[in-house]
TrEMBL record:
Keyword Ribosomal protein: no
Record-annotated Tetrahydrofolate dehydrogenase/cyclohydrolase NAD(P)-binding domain positions: 139-279
UniProt organism field: Compostibacillus humi
Presence of the UniProt keyword Cell cycle in the record: no
Family assignment from sequence similarity: Belongs to the tetrahydrofolate dehydrogenase/cyclohydrolase family.
Gene: folD
General function of this protein: Catalyzes the oxidation of 5,10-methylenetetrahydrofolate to 5,10-methenyltetrahydrofolate and then the hydrolysis of 5,10-methenyltetrahydrofolate to 10-formyltetrahydrofolate.
Quaternary structure (record): Homodimer.
Protein name in UniProt: Bifunctional protein FolD
Pathway of action: One-carbon metabolism; tetrahydrofolate interconversion
Highest taxon of source: Bacteria
Amino acid sequence: MSVNILNGKQLAQRLRMEMKDEVDQLVQDGIKPKLTVVLVGNNPASLSYVKGKEKAAKEAGILADVIRLPDSTSEKELLRLIQQLNEDDTVHGILVQLPLPEHIREQLVITAISPNKDVDGFHPVNIGKMMTGEDTFLPCTPYGIMTMLDAYDIEIEGKHAVVIGRSNIVGKPVGQLLLNRNATVTYCHSRTKNLKQYTEQADILIAAIGKANVITKDYIKKGAVVIDVGINRLEDGSLTGDVDMEGAMEKASHITPVPGGVGPMTIAMLLKNTIDAAKGLNRVE
Ligand SMILES: Nc1nc(=O)c2c([nH]1)NC[C@@H]1CN(c3ccc(C(=O)N[C@@H](CCC(=O)O)C(=O)O)cc3)C=[N+]21
């Protein structure tokens, strides 16, 4: 049987069109969804991601305001800006682009964002709600992965999901969401010994490592669903995932491409969270 390519780009495009109708309805009701993105410094990858978010938001009829601050911005100044945005009723979603410069404590900044406007789903309150399985803003990449699995009718319950990577923004939350859906979840990471012995048992393999093409076909069980979260830029400027796609296609039943897989879904889910925030969903306090 041949492999199915999970087309995140196409699915994200469809979702954005559906969201546009929802936004038009909200606007008729007098609510214009607005996302404010805060970008500190000029990390070239961040600049390019933020452009993508801005464009996608505008296409869906969502206001996207990008506040660009210099590298020299102090932690205090950033916290003050977040406080202002928290109090600004025209702003429904706040996203502080990561990574932040080293002199700023990321966790402090994330926690300063109102959980009601935390469209990244990174605030401890929202992480807690995710863990207990309540409705809340889910982190966009894990949410995008789950949406893609569902859109392609991939069964999760009872499957062995192996997550490689334990970042707060991808690895940890995607494992939790899979667990919430009754998968058996194994986490692997940079200190895991004999990675292959775990990955070759995976019905669903999530690669969120950040190293180009390290997951070769020997790591993959025949018939596995392979989700490649890696976005690695090669010297020639091209993008590639953590999975050696060509080899993996010989073993996998389903696989996400890079680009055009998880990345576009991440942005679509950011827009979904922003619309939900504008509707007043997931509020606490
Ligand atoms: N507070 C915060 N929230 C984030 O969600 C966040 C962040 N910080 N920091 C950086 C990462 C990375 N990220 C991506 C989103 C979309 C693509 C994406 O659309 N990728 C395209 C290719 C884009 C290209 O060509 O460069 C694709 O995979 O097809 C990539 C990366 C969000 N992040």
